[in-house]
């Protein structure tokens, strides 16, 4: 792969399909995609290279939720024909609605540790790279309610 981010729906789906193909070709442990808020992307791009040209380590996750807690950017992992994602109760409802459009995908496992808010969801997804890419894009838009021009980053292949 030569590019790792995209903010246009067509480009994102191509990026995701390329990432799935690279993941499968390399036999890597997993593929991770993250989304950054527009203000996080601006901070990430500005802070990504320090004065010495090295990455500064700032992930741009400086925004906060309604309770003043740092907001973690949404992420989805894919490995061995399974998506792994964390959802709030509302996001889990939206995920269930989205899965109606993907009858070949199903929730295999839900885990809600007492010390964590939300649920870790594992969705089995046996399909081709383009169908997986379509699901990834729709999950970020519909489950995590990102705008049409959200920026996604493939952070691990």
Topology, pairings included?
Layout: E1 5-6, H1 9-26, E2 31-36, H2 38-47, E3 75-79, E4 82-87, H3 89-99, E5 105-111, E6 119-125, H4 129-143, E7 151-156
Antiparallel strand pairs: 1-7, 2-3, 2-7, 3-4, 4-6, 5-6
Helix pairs in contact: 1-4, 3-4
Folded structure, characterized:
- This protein is α+β, with helices and mostly antiparallel strands.
- The chain has one domain (5-48, 69-156).
- Helix content is 34%, strand content 25%.
- The protein contains four helices and seven strands.
- It has helices at residues 9-26, 38-47, 89-99, 129-143; strands spanning 5-6, 31-36, 75-79, 82-87, 105-111, 119-125, 151-156.
- It has a seven-stranded antiparallel sheet.
- α1 crosses α4 and α3 (89-99) runs antiparallel to α4.
């Amino acid at each position: 792969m030569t590019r790792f981010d995209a903010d246009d729906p067509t480009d994102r789906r191509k990026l995701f399909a390329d990432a799935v193909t690279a993941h499968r070709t390399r036999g890597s442990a997993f593929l991770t995609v993250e989304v950054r808020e527009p203000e996080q992307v601006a901070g990430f791009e500005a802070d990504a290279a320090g004065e010495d040209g090295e990455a500064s380590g700032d992930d741009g996750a400086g925004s906060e939720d309604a309770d003043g807690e740092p907001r973690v950017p949404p992420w989805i992992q894919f490995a061995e024909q399974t998506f792994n994602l964390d959802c709030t109760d509302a996001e889990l409802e939206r995920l269930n609605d989205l899965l109606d459009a993907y009858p070949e995908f199903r929730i295999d496992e839900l885990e809600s540790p007492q010390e964590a808010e939300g649920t870790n969801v594992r969705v089995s997804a046996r399909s081709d790279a383009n169908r997986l890419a379509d699901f990834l894009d729709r999950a970020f838009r519909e489950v995590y309610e990102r705008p049409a021009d959200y920026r996604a980053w493939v952070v691990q292949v």
